[in-house]
Amino acid sequence: MTERMLTVGILGATGAVGQRFVALLANHPWFRIGAVMASERSVGKVYGDAVQWHLPAVPGAAVREMCVTPCTPDGREGLDFVFSGLPAEEAVEIEPLFAARGIPVVSNTRSHRMDPRVPLVIPEVNAGHLAIIPDPSRTGDRQGFIVTNPNCATSALALALDPIHRRLGVRKVMVVTAQAVSGAGFPGLSVMSILDNAIPYISGEEPKLETEPCKIFGCIHHDQIMVSDMVISAACTRVAVRDGHLMHVSVELNQLASRDEIIACWDDYISDIHGLGLPSQPERSVEYLDVPDRPQPLLDRDRGQGMTVTVGRLRECAVLQWKFAVLGHNTIRGAAGGAILLAELLTVRGWFPRS
Amino acid sequence: MTERMLTVGILGATGAVGQRFVALLANHPWFRIGAVMASERSVGKVYGDAVQWHLPAVPGAAVREMCVTPCTPDGREGLDFVFSGLPAEEAVEIEPLFAARGIPVVSNTRSHRMDPRVPLVIPEVNAGHLAIIPDPSRTGDRQGFIVTNPNCATSALALALDPIHRRLGVRKVMVVTAQAVSGAGFPGLSVMSILDNAIPYISGEEPKLETEPCKIFGCIHHDQIMVSDMVISAACTRVAVRDGHLMHVSVELNQLASRDEIIACWDDYISDIHGLGLPSQPERSVEYLDVPDRPQPLLDRDRGQGMTVTVGRLRECAVLQWKFAVLGHNTIRGAAGGAILLAELLTVRGWFPRS
Amino acid sequence: MTERMLTVGILGATGAVGQRFVALLANHPWFRIGAVMASERSVGKVYGDAVQWHLPAVPGAAVREMCVTPCTPDGREGLDFVFSGLPAEEAVEIEPLFAARGIPVVSNTRSHRMDPRVPLVIPEVNAGHLAIIPDPSRTGDRQGFIVTNPNCATSALALALDPIHRRLGVRKVMVVTAQAVSGAGFPGLSVMSILDNAIPYISGEEPKLETEPCKIFGCIHHDQIMVSDMVISAACTRVAVRDGHLMHVSVELNQLASRDEIIACWDDYISDIHGLGLPSQPERSVEYLDVPDRPQPLLDRDRGQGMTVTVGRLRECAVLQWKFAVLGHNTIRGAAGGAILLAELLTVRGWFPRS
Amino acid sequence: MTERMLTVGILGATGAVGQRFVALLANHPWFRIGAVMASERSVGKVYGDAVQWHLPAVPGAAVREMCVTPCTPDGREGLDFVFSGLPAEEAVEIEPLFAARGIPVVSNTRSHRMDPRVPLVIPEVNAGHLAIIPDPSRTGDRQGFIVTNPNCATSALALALDPIHRRLGVRKVMVVTAQAVSGAGFPGLSVMSILDNAIPYISGEEPKLETEPCKIFGCIHHDQIMVSDMVISAACTRVAVRDGHLMHVSVELNQLASRDEIIACWDDYISDIHGLGLPSQPERSVEYLDVPDRPQPLLDRDRGQGMTVTVGRLRECAVLQWKFAVLGHNTIRGAAGGAILLAELLTVRGWFPRS
pTM of the entire structure? Predict the structure, then answer.
């Protein structure tokens, strides 16, 4: 039986995250771009003219010549679902309009992440949370809904914690980041602010890192997500790195464990999508590097085409119990790539039928 | 009564720390450089030719034309004391030779820092530790000894902690750094290693940050320094910043305190050298900035001519009690400047008599 | 006879150039800031709140608490003259309004630079061009006028050429730049555009470099400036340097000369303000460094408090005759500092009387 | 007929160029690495331990576990030829030893580049120069010889000039570069030298850029290469870019031409390897981009897998006739990639028989 390609729209297609969606969906085996939607400023232009492209790989001709249309669900019957890379203040209104019209939204925006009726999902970690979406097999009608993927730093942190959490229970987490400039979008930071500098503050970031993992590690109760009681303290720094969020993490666990046992958690990790072979799923979702000075953004961010989170430097912590370093590609795993992987999971689970 | 200038030697004068000594001693009101000492490779050349100078301000003509001599105490009777910016593996042998010949050593090197009979001193924090040096007034003979100043990151951390520690008692510390490249000396890091990158490891740095503050906050017992039982966990990152070590710090205190009370500790800090007006003493040794995104290396490292440690972002910590950001200039406060301030203190306390 | 302080206004005081004016006028011996003027967005705020300050040195309390007022000449009788750091599209209308009301404008903006009735002056190079301004001694009334200083790259290039041009005549110039990011103002360039990158284009820059020096080296004819017939070809590159425009220059001269004779032009340069001792005048306006790898932005931009232009690497050119490297601080010599030096010259020449 | 894989050795395999050879030869369809040769320091270690790898992609397991052997031709009968990434001072002695033993050397080193009996070849530009190597079909014996590829900056410059030179004749060239730090190898430049800086000097680089293109555009005379009389003036700058040499070029041509005619030279370029389809040959060897601010290292260096040279900004030059910007990937097209393409050409022309 041949399976059809799904036609997807991109909300906020000209922004930094939108560009990553366009880049990563080129040649996708299941999804093809059917609409690039953006703000008034861009509407009516062809995408190639509307976008100030800043990724090395150029978008393909088909997308470049697509006309940018407004972020409205009117006349979008041809779309199977949409990806959203909208700014939060726009997403809060626009995304529900699509959902209400039966067009599912896979959103990379923070607006609905902490809504207990909206799943916040890293496929490897909490695929089960998708169960709170109306069952696709039971209803004849097309269903609209919103699912979200987490903040860029949360994506890396939660994936690095999950293998330990499953076996040993993570009770407390202290995380301090060194985050890449692409996280601020484009134009984002002025070079005057960051060349020969580091900034110990990223607006709104620490609360996300302290709450989103608790929801991801939470459980379903009466069709809502209840947050875990994991305690997290986060401090965030911006550094002059293009891509890749690096973080030092200290943890207190529920169970005592040796260094080898903890490394084995990462080495033997069986995730929620183990063996599914989704198109964007890396060979290894988490990889521990047993060398003294890794992971590093420049050397490790592109592992698994940017979808592998890298861990290193596991050692004892004098204040909590263990500490280690974590790295994730913020605009791939932590944004568009994570959202695409989530859409792939929704596809194989039946929410986006291909036949 | 006119006071004479003291004549000082610099051990390791051509290295990164040595260059900072030369730069900071230009126009010093009490000290003048009498000898620039370095390794075989440089001996016999004039300083201007021997050094690969990498600071913006050029050394004065007098120093540039001084002949580089070997790191030996022979014939050094004319020196009142020496500063040492030697590599640790050389300092361990050379510094005691000078001390044994009656030439005091003010050392920026790690070799003798943790020796309980050698004071490890930040003048503001633990000037009292100098008491374990033989009393200058009681002996007629010239006394040799070694005193040390701490690691660059420790200097900033301990100064930031001291005002809180005095009033409220600091029990546990978690510190994660973003450290400047000048800390690695010259040539130090290859640009290939750090451009568009950050490295979550600095060889030997974490143990220093976890032990040196405990000695600085320790007490004298039988003419030795006993370390404090403060518990410190450190994680270090190298970032693409020229100067200025930035760190996120979380603490647990002995006493409960409000945010205002903690800020008052910094605002009202009375240090061990309060009011002494030493030439290198900044108007404020620690300064709290009540703005959301500071301190930053580029904007704050030069406060107090690089001698002021800046603190910001005090807020509650979900895992310990409070967290904040700290910045110190690593090659001034954290190296040559700190050592010069220490020598100034030794001078006014009588160890280096000027009359 | 005591001389009074002159009270100056700053047009565009919150922008990148405006901030440099504020920083450089702190503690100026002749000028004190009497008004900080900016766009609607800032009007009514105190300067300290209106400005997103990005220079290491903070503005003094007096300026920080000054109220930002609109860019209009109404009620400005208290100002002796104004400095303008306005964007060109605003300067074109606003500056003449001030001049018409008798308030002289010393402008760093390009709008009127090429107007033959407006002097475009580097004090060392063409102080004589000020002669086309109405003579201050002959008229009883207060006179308004506009004088301009050149583009940042032109400032360095023309100063480096002037000593050779005076003795040997420069006929043709090929110049290729590597320009600092501060030249684009603040926020200016996104870090995403320039980290690990260089951009071989700066909007509008090449025409300025090809025409402004010709006006500076031009002569007065019927109270207008006639441009020189020097032929200049320029190519501009933006690089990841904070401050300091570096350029490679090749020249064809009217007269044959040896390498030593050309270096002597720079070493023995007698400029138009030789010996005047203006407050912002550096000891040496142009300095030749006879070492293989200089000038460099990091090491040489701050010579003469940013007012000295540095030259190096004089060698034969296979296509023209000689080539060399030039460096100038773009936001000091090339902007606010150059304009202040020009105002100082206007002061001693009688246009801004201090008694 | 099945064709066999050729077994190649790499001289200087642990250095910066050597690493690129290893990376680019992974999965090469014709060549497989049979020996990694390096200096005493590395000999006896497995390659993975001997090398301080600094490229994102890690070397494959097969190479990582290969034993590093000394740079001697003894016992190298199994090698079809060797690539050399040796430092020049070692290459000058070692490469001829291999050639003398019948092992051809494809060298990326400068040592023999200007020897009139050694071809200096960019396959697209002067494949014909290989004719001075002894004809492989005429001699039964295995022949040793040395062929070289040009300096990294020359590679880009000569490829950009060739399409114009063929049709219109290039008489004079002025080139000013902004070169990437990887050109200095590893560790190469200290980050202290180049962060927030640019250096207007690269040791030995300008003479290479002024002479190598003249040899490449030269002709064969009595089995030697005679250099062209093209006149080139070069000035070189190091900037904080990882990879990609950018340059501004001005030219004087033998024939008058319009802007469109010159762009047509690049658009319609028929190179010496047109249509050969060599494995490392990019779809387009030279590509003109008709946008205002390109080429840029970050955005364009990876075109054609780093083998395409990009040109932009063609405009009139007031001093010569035309000027434009050029970009080439210095460690791929300008080093290992260029040498591999050359070896591929030698293979199809019969010097390295595969059957």
Answer: 0.95
